[in-house]
Amino acid sequence: MELPSLRDLYDLGAAQQPTWPDASEVDRVVDRLRRNPPLVFAGECDDLKAKLAAVTRGEAFLLQGGDCAETLEGATADNVRAKLRVLLQMAVVLTYAASVPVVKVGRLAGQYAKPRSSDMETREGVTLPAYRGDAVNGYDFTTESRVPDPQRLLDVYNSSAATLNLVRAFVTGGYADLRQVHTWNTDFVRSSPVGKRYERMAGDIDRALTFMKAIGADPEEFHRVDFHSSHEALVLEYEHALTRIDSRTELPYDVSAHFLWIGERTRQLGGAHVELMSRIQNPIGVKLGPTTTPDDAIALAQRLNPLNEPGRLTFITRMGAGRIRTVLPELVEKVTAAGVQVAWVCDPMHGNTFEASSGYKTRRFEDVMEEVQGFFDVHRELGTWPGGLHVELTGDNVTECVGGGESLLEEDLSHRYESVCDPRLNRVQSLELAFLVADMLSQVAEPEL
Ligand SMILES: O=C[C@H](O)[C@H](O)COP(=O)(O)O
Ligand SMILES: C=C(OP(=O)(O)O)C(=O)O
Ligand SMILES: [Mn+2]
Predict the structure, then answer these.
(1) What ligand has the least distance to the C-alpha of 114?
(2) How far is the CA of 118 from the centre of ligand 1 (A)?
């Protein structure tokens, strides 16, 4: 199958692209990227698609999470381990409490490019191009740093390769062994109420594992987990250069990650991002904000998944706590009535951002939970499956979102605000979210008789 050229894609209209200052340097970088080895294998993308087909059928739940924006500086072993650890903890909570298989996908090893609401940023009377992620320009607020630099795409490739290599080692090399379930709970979490709840659950799991082992059952699944990478497919040069023809099927796969999604700002039906994603075989997602009409969603599904293959397409809704109950029902109802096979996933972050009086971008934990509750309620009323959760989180003890069990206040935001883009749930808030969602999920998975 012929892929459209980059030029063809740009001719369709490409939103949110960097204005690279030197086209010939971009060409050189793209040429180098095209010769770099794939970061993931096509067969792994197929495996994830099969798992997402189970999500679509209501037999599994997707947990997708990580930073809003990864940074090159932040691609350290400690950081990657911390993110993986919190995702593993959340996954085990969801699996154990709701007895539903959890498909684990990180927003990592490639989540380096950001769409922005505004092209420019003004601080104290100085206006510069907005930061668009480490794939494009630097976060420092200086003229030099904000100039888009295509060499960064090579840095992103290398950093993604190193991150993925470490994640693969962790998940297959013993770190993700269920016997480690206690050690994922580090000290600062253990002392919190949610950490204590986790400890009790980990104790139950330990006893169950000891029993299983005693009766001679010790399956491979206890010792390793499947973990997949994902990011927003935003910078066309990068995604196009990493789209390759799979030797088994002779079909194109975007081998920069297992799962790619199209953002709320780049999902124009005739636009470049939808066109490129329509050509690849990976499982893909589309973010749907509150202005999405049922016709938009149905048209996107027809365009992106013309064969209506379960697992190929995930709709990630991000409506906001105040709108989910009014906007989501009609969307889900009409898309379902049209016979569209899709996994419905809730992003309770992007519709709930606001600016604190101190100027920090933040989110209320309570709004996040309210959106998730609305998502579950709407799906329960319609008899459809609430297929998963897409969250911005970190494994560290940051202070970026307010509320939660530790009652973080707006005054606390400055203590440890490290995100270069959107505010993330910290370790404790993430675990709290997992327990609350596990309660919701267990009610859907085991309806009262
Ligand atoms: O992560 C999502 C977007 O890139 C982000 O919310 C945009 O933020 P902005 O509104 O500050 O540009
Ligand atoms: C840009 C993002 O979200 P959205 O496209 O939903 O605004 C994101 O997930 O970081
Ligand atoms: Mn974000």
Answers:
(1) 1
(2) 9
Residue 192, token pair as written in the block? 């919190």
Domain boundaries defined on the chain = 6-115+229-445
Ligand 2 probe mutation, 70, 273, 392, 422, most atoms within 8 A of CB: 422
Ligand 1 pocket test, candidate residues 114, 235, 419, 424, most atoms within 8 A of CB: 114
Assess contact for 410 and 357: CB atoms under 8 A. yes
383: CB partners within 8 A, 6+ apart: none
E strand residue ranges, 92-203: 102-107, 120-123, 126-129
9-62 pLDDT per residue, tens: 999 999 999 999 999 999 999 999 999 999 999 999 999 999 999 999 999 999
Helix axis angle for 151-172 and 77-98, nearest 10°, is 50
Report the atom number in ligand 2 closest to the C-alpha of 316.
Answer: 6
Q: Is the ipTM of this complex over 0.95?
A: yes
pTM above 0.90, yes or no: yes
Q: How far apart are CA 176 and CA 169, in angstroms?
A: 10
CA atoms within 13 A on the CB side of 436: 18
Topology of the domain comprising 6-115+229-445: TIM Barrel (3.20.20)
Structure tokens at 60: 């599994």
Considering only CA atoms, which of 180, 171, 130, 132 is closest in space to residue 153?
Answer: 132
d(CA 123, CA 260): 33
